Amino acid sequence: MGVKQAIKSLDAFPRAEEHLLQKTQSGALVSIVGLVIMAALFIHELTYYLTTYTVHQMSVDLKRGETLPIHINMTFPSLPCDVLSVDAIDMSGKHEVDLDTNIWKLRLNSHGHIIGTEYLSDLVEKEHAADKHDDEKEHHDDSNKKFQALGFDQEAENMIKKVKQALVNGEGCRVYGVLDVQRVAGNFHISVHGLNINVAQMIFGGATHVNVSHMIHDLSFGPKYPGLHNPLDGTVRILHDTSGTFKYYIKIVPTEYRYISKEVLPTNQFSVTEYFSPMNEFDRTWPAVYFLYDLSPITVTIKEECQSFLHFITRLCAVLGGTFALTGMLDRWMYRLLEGLTKPSARGGVYR
After folding, report:
1. Total domains, the chain
2. 182 and 312 fall within a common domain
3. What is the pTM of this model?
4. Could you tell me which residue ranges the Endoplasmic reticulum vesicle transporter C-terminal domain spans (predicted)?
């Protein structure tokens, strides 16, 4: 018996006799409020446990010998596809003019709708234009003599006629695709620089008449990950009665996104500043849209993480236990307050 009594003395949760327990309306109200609070906190903790969050880490970029993918999707509403070219140059000395590998052009009418074939690459479009104008050359003998007098060959003559007609019709062009460039600082630009200077002069009558208004639907340097915001997406720059060169200075930050499934997604995020240089009649350059990029030596690692089950149980016990203890204290205070208010009135009735 002595051992049993000793064990009972260690009980931290003594039970009161049933006839000594008193249930009150105030206690019921506090219990209901406490249960509502505990249910709300339980749902909040469960939601937090099931939700993933991201942790950012920074380190020195150790990548070497890899290429940098540049995803382009832009619309030029005032320039036909025949005059647009995509050129790229980097600090390693690599210079590519009028890229057509993995870069596609989509002809648009004045309302922005697709004309003819949906997907047209540079080479396909040039061949199509040459075939079409070869069939029509018999109807333009007089104009051909004029171009030949200026020193243009048949291909240049056809190009000039086609582009002038496209400008009259209000044609535009959508340029999209992927550029794979060296992982060093450089730039790429979209312009009319692929044209012979004399051909460009015949088409536009001067650099001040080249309208490089553009809309950037998408510009990124790798695949997208959850929460990524590319600052140039949705950019619209429309010129009215003027011309000039747009320059976007881009700082690329190498990024790794690690999913909770341990899958790793290498990509890049970037920041950008913008500069516009108006064109005047004395400038010797032609308008263009430049994207000048440089790479940061720091790489950012973004990890998806979630709360551990033990952490969830610990927080749940702390929250529910704390709420239960607080409601118990509140119940005792309310009981003593009501008891103190009712007893004097009861005593007053006895003495009367």
Report:
1. 2
2. no
3. 0.71
4. 140-331
CB 186, CB 68: distance < 8 Å: no
Q: Where are the beta strands (DSSP E) in the chain?
A: 53-60, 67-76, 85-90, 95-96, 103-108, 120-121, 172-182, 186-191, 214-220, 235-237, 244-258, 264-278, 288-295, 298-305
- Which whole number is the average pLDDT over 174-187? 89
**181 and 74 in one domain?**
yes
Q: How far apart are CA 333 and CA 144, in angstroms?
A: 104
3-class secondary structure, 322: helix
| Cα separation, 103 vs 178, whole angstroms | 6
102, 196, 298 from 154: Cα distances, Å = 29, 14, 53
Residue 351 lies in a domain: no
Same domain, yes or no, for 165 and 257? yes
Residue ranges making up the domain that contains 329: 308-339
> Which candidate, 22, 44, 32, places its Cα nearest to that of 315?
44
- Which residues make Cβ contacts (< 8 Å) with residue 115, sequence separation at least 6? 107, 108, 109, 171
166 vs 129: CA distance, rounded Å: 12
Residue 1 lies in a domain: no
Please indicate, yes or no, whether residues 289 and 168 belong to a single structural domain of this protein.
yes
Q: Tell me the pLDDT tens digit for each residue of 157-178.
A: 887 888 888 888 888 999 999 9
Both 89 and 198 in one domain: the answer is: yes
Half-sphere exposure of 211 (CA within 13 A, CB side): 20
- Residue 275's pLDDT is 94
Give the span between the Cα atoms of 38 and 53, in whole angstroms. 24
Residue 304 in contact with residue 52, Cβ under 8 Å? Answer: yes
Domain-embedded: residue 122: no
**From CA 257, how far away is CA 94, in angstroms rounded?**
30
Residue 277 and residue 313 in one domain? no
Asked whether the CA dihedral 185, 216, 266, 86 is positive or negative, the reply is: negative
Same domain, 211 and 83: yes
Note the helical H segments in 80-219: 122-136, 141-149, 154-168, 197-204
Residue 40: CB atoms within 10 Å: 11
Looking at the fold, whether 180 and 289 belong to one and the same domain comes out as: yes
Please name every residue paired with 169 in a beta bridge, in sequence order, or none if there are none. Answer: none
